[in-house]
Amino acid sequence: MKAVVCGASGGIGQPLSLLLKVSPLIDELSLYDVVNTPGVTADLSHISSVAKVDGFLKDDNGLQKALTGANVVVIPAGVPRKPGMTRDDLFNINAGIVRDLITAVAETCPKAFILIISNPVNSTVPIAAEVLKKAGVFEPKRLFGVTTLDVVRAETFVQELSGEKDPSKTIIPVVGGHSGETIIPLFSQAKPAVKIPADKLGPLVHRVQFGGDEVVAAKGGAGSATLSMAYAGFRFTESVIKASLGEKGIIEPSFVYLPGVPGGDTIAKQTGVDFFSVPIELGVGLEVFYIP
């Protein structure tokens, strides 16, 4: 199993690469970035885990070399959100970065699973889909927008009310998009059920939707939610790998192209959009589970 991280030297990329390096499911880990990849690679290569790690810069067709033979490509590349920065500001920078990376994926490893973390996910995933369509290699079941951080936040923040020792044991579907009010945590569908007082629900939903602002403020504008995003990206990547290896019953919300996945057409008609985050069962035959 070969995994590739594009943007491996960044604030999300480094801790994400660390987590992937120690995963027993990964045999090869290739790191790509435009700067600092040799240092990150050397550092990670000293860790006594299964995965063999190598790193590439842009020179000498480094991106193509990193992507060759990839089963999973995770993309956290791009600039992070800074104080006062809107999602539109992010889009103007990160859209081109994602476009170029996906172009290389389409040429080098079109059958790989593509997991996009680069924000704004609501826009970068549709861009990726269009690039793949233009190249004639678009498979909707292999393109995912990683919205797992919204799920992780919902699980964590509700713990104060549930008293659950391990917050990950509370399953909370999160649907919609991956930006502000488009993020819709369905606390009413939590398993096991959680009783949320009426006066607590609004603030809880708002905190899940705007948790990124909380981290940016706490870091004094010097960074964004990099560590928690790296964990969330790792969690989703492992789920995709486990499912691709045959494990059944893995359900994770993800931002996907609805018309291209089983059950998605109905949701597209209900929502009026083609891209939407819904709980999906990962596997060879992707199924969509929509919780109304």
Highlighted features:
292 residues; 6-stranded parallel β-sheet; 11 strands; alpha/beta; single chain; 3-stranded antiparallel β-sheet; 41% helix; 16% strand
What does this protein look like?
By secondary structure, the protein is of the alpha/beta class. The strands form 3 sheets. A 6-stranded parallel sheet has the order 3-2-1-4-5-6, sandwiched between helices. A 3-stranded antiparallel sheet has the order 9-10-11. A two-stranded antiparallel sheet has the order 7-8. Helix 5 links the parallel strand 5 and strand 6. The longest helix has 22 residues. It is globular. The mean pLDDT is about 95.
Short description:
With 292 residues, the protein is an alpha/beta fold.
What is this structure's SSE topology?
Blueprint lengths: L1 E5 L6 H9 L6 E5 L4 H8 L7 E5 L5 H6 L4 E4 L11 H22 L4 E4 L4 H15 L7 E3 L2 H15 L11 E3 L6 E3 L12 H12 L1 H8 L8 H18 L6 E7 L6 H8 L3 E7 L5 E2 L4
Parallel strand pairs: 1-2, 1-4, 2-3, 4-5, 5-6
Antiparallel strand pairs: 7-8, 9-10, 10-11
Helix pairs in contact: 1-9, 4-5, 6-7
What portion of residues belong to β-strands? 15-25%
Counted by DSSP, the helix tally is: 10
**Span between N and C termini?**
36 Å
Structural classification: alpha/beta
Strand order of the largest sheet: 3-2-1-4-5-6
- How many beta-strand segments? 11
Helix-strand pattern: EHEHEHEHEHEHEEHHHEHEE
Main sheet summary? 6 strands, parallel
> From the alpha-carbon coordinates, what is the Rg to the nearest angstrom?
18 Å
Assembly of the depicted chains: single chain
Any idea what the shape is? globular
Average pLDDT reading: 94
Which ranges are low-confidence, i.e. pLDDT below 50, for 5 or more consecutive residues? none
Helical residues, percent: 40-55%
